[in-house]
């Protein structure tokens, strides 16, 4: 059972945005020779994003770094929004919201570090992974139990869909 204030904040959400490093990944970056840039992504997040899409919702990434690995993962998972090398995450999220005609309450964000805090002003619900920076965790609307790179995005999706009373029906689609 979700606390009523969290459930109430989850109900209007239609768009989920998130950071990459520290949210979709554990925050480590492996740099090899040349332009080789390796990241570890959780299959739990991937399956959760598939569930999110089955619900008819859009998702995307807003990140300060550019990575070919992220571009490939975003394509695989069919992110509707991919914003890399973003110097102002708040402005980027505001532009996404306005272009899509969404109110703040209809957008949630998962962020883990200081450069994500500014996004809180543009969304109705701000999640922080379990291992988020303490300044972010203390300011988040909800502090997730799962660390970044281990299914934090999936946990946020499960919470939102549960509050919207859609989770069980969506899970049933996997039983066919």
UniProtKB/TrEMBL annotation:
Entry keyword set: Hydrolase, Magnesium, Metal-binding
Domain of life the protein comes from: Bacteria
Chain positions recorded as Mg(2+) binding sites: 19, 112
GO terms assigned for molecular function: hydrolase activity, acting on ester bonds; metal ion binding; N-acylneuraminate cytidylyltransferase activity
Keyword check for Metal-binding: yes
Cofactor(s) annotated in UniProt: Mg(2+)
Binding-site residues, substrate: 21
InterPro entries: CMP-NeuNAc_synthase, HAD-like_sf, HAD_sf, KdsC_fam
Pfam family, one: Hydrolase_3
Zinc keyword on record: no
Subunit structure: Homotetramer.
Family: Belongs to the KdsC family.
Name this polypeptide is given: 3-deoxy-D-manno-octulosonate 8-phosphate phosphatase
């Amino acid at each position: 059972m979700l606390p009523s204030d969290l459930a109430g904040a989850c109900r209007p959400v239609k768009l989920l945005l998130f950071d990459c490093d520290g949210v979709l990944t554990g925050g480590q970056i492996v740099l090899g020779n040349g332009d080789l840039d390796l990241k570890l992504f959780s299959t739990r997040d991937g399956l959760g994003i598939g569930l999110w899409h089955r619900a008819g919702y859009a998702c995307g990434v807003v990140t300060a770094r550019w990575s070919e690995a992220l571009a490939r993962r975003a394509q695989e998972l069919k992110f509707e929004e991919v914003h890399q090398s973003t110097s102002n995450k708040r402005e980027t999220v505001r532009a996404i919201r306005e272009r899509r005609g969404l109110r703040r309450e209809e957008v949630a964000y998962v962020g883990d570090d200081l450069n994500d805090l500014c996004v809180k002003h543009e969304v109705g619900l701000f999640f922080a992974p379990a291992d988020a920076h303490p300044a972010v965790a203390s300011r988040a609307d909800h502090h997730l139990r799962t660390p970044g790179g281990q299914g934090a995005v999936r946990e946020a999706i499960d919470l939102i869909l549960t509050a919207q009373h859609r989770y069980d029906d969506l899970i049933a689609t996997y039983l066919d």
